[in-house]
Design brief:
Blueprint: H1 6-17, H2 22-25, H3 39-56, E1 62-65, E2 71-76, E3 127-131, H4 135-139, E4 163-175, E5 177-183, E6 196-204, E7 212-220, H5 222-225, E8 231-237, E9 255-256, E10 279-286, E11 293-297, E12 302-306, E13 318-328, E14 355-363, E15 369-371, E16 376-379, E17 386-392, E18 396-402
Antiparallel strand pairs: 1-2, 2-3, 4-13, 4-16, 5-10, 5-14, 6-7, 6-13, 7-8, 9-12, 10-11, 11-12, 14-15, 14-18, 17-18
Length: 411
């Protein structure tokens, strides 16, 4: 692979931008370790948190207690956080758009279960399920201002900034969406301020301050959620993570329409080594009529949309699509992290042992799903996490990826 090529250079530049490492900038933000705050400052912080929680947590018409400790509030759809956004105020959710055309793909059935709905509970029609944010969630964050967000500033003076990836990508054309099936695992995460995720990125912009991204997948993030469950998540930004966008529904912007899937909720069942493999299928695509970017989870289950008014470059099309895994390596023990990516096993172990993306496709200008043209794969620390691509009749474009992190070749 030519790491001096413009495409690889652009990709590595992007990899420097993505995600959150608390310890990198905690001393530069207002979020000191709350344990050591003076008593007066601590009470001031608690009051600020309560005010922030009142803004985030909308009153529901029904409350559901999940087995994992989550509280799900069923919020009237037009009162959800999205409509606090200045460009969306006073609006209501739009009707579903025309779905992209595709040839039927064969493969493992995907599962769309979440722990909160195992008991048969559901939200009434006209409402959406929202995971309630608690005081403890905010106290785990680096600061109130950065809660639910990725890095505000990009540090260009370090290599990788602690983020390690194994991804497949396409670039050099106009893309109007992407789809893939991803098997879900429970990777071990070494430090509370590290995470492990697998996702789709829809990308446009110059990879400077005007970077636009739309992201969706599953993640294990003890800091954000307070546990080690794999959870369905979304993200967006229009300024390279500096001030816009957030995870899930933690800020205004994403408009949810689904009444049976909660963004940020735990996914179950999950895949097991040498055992059953359980997928989630995700599709993001641009509505040709209104220009909004819609998200589908599972078979025909529309979650909602990112309004085109949120974006600059993504008002038109994407210039790159990525699929794959990412971890954060904080070196908390002085050695490489043992945080796992995917299943925690290398790509060459194959089916039922390594994590995979399968049936990867992109949406073209005719609103049709097509196989990936010229898929490239890259792993920036292949001795720690790697990736191997392939193609077959059942899975179309696919790859295995992941790894254990620290090992004899990755000290």
């Amino acid at each position: 692979m030519d790491f001096n090529s413009p495409v690889i250079s652009l990709l590595l530049h992007f990899l420097l931008l993505v995600s959150l490492v608390c310890h990198v900038y905690s001393s530069e933000t207002s979020g000191q370790n709350q344990t050591f705050l003076p008593n007066e400052e601590f009470h001031k912080l608690k009051r600020t948190i309560k005010m922030h929680l009142r803004r985030i947590n909308k009153p529901g018409v029904k409350t559901i207690q999940s087995p994992d400790g989550d509280i799900i509030d069923c919020v009237v759809s037009h009162k959800q956080p999205a409509f606090d956004h200045p460009t969306l105020r006073g609006q209501k959710p739009l009707d579903p758009p025309e779905r992209p055309r595709e040839h039927k793909q064969m493969g493992i059935e995907d599962y769309n279960f979440q722990l909160w709905s195992f008991s048969g509970e559901s939200c009434p029609e006209g409402t959406i399920p929202i995971r309630r944010i608690k005081e403890g969630d905010m106290l785990r964050a680096c600061s109130i201002n950065t809660f639910g967000r990725k890095l505000k500033r990009v540090r260009m003076d370090t290599t990788g900034d602690g983020h390690e990836h194994a991804v497949g990508y396409v670039s050099g054309d106009e893309y109007y969406g992407a789809k893939a099936s991803i098997n879900v695992w429970v990777p071990q995460v070494e430090s509370p301020y590290e995470f492990s995720l697998s996702q789709i990125w829809i990308i446009s912009g110059s990879f400077g301050e005007d970077l636009n991204t739309i992201e969706a997948g599953w993640q294990v993030s003890p800091e954000l959620y307070g546990d080690s469950y794999p959870r369905f998540f979304t993200y967006w930004t229009t300024d390279a993570y500096q001030g816009t966008g957030c995870y899930n529904l933690l800020c205004s912007g994403f408009v949810q329409t689904s009444s049976n899937i909660a963004i940020g909720a735990a996914i179950s069942p999950t895949s097991t080594y040498n055992g059953g493999q359980f997928d989630i299928s995700l599709m993001i695509w641009k509505d040709p009529k209104h220009g909004n970017w819609w998200l589908e989870y599972g078979s025909g289950n529309l979650i909602g949309y990112w309004p085109s008014s949120l974006f600059t470059h993504l008002k038109d099309s994407a210039t790159m699509v990525q699929f794959g895994g990412e971890i954060v390596n904080t070196m908390s023990t002085g050695a490489h992290t043992s945080t796992q990516m995917g299943s925690g096993h290398f790509a060459e172990e194959g089916f039922a042992k390594a994590a995979y993306f399968r049936n990867m496709q992109v949406v073209d200008s005719d609103n049709s799903l097509i196989p990936l043209p010229n898929l490239n794969v890259v792993a920036n620390r292949p001795n720690c996490y790697n990736i191997q691509e392939g193609t077959n009749n059942g899975w179309g474009n696919y790859f295995y990826y992941g790894g254990p992190g620290r090992n004899v070749k990755c000290p």
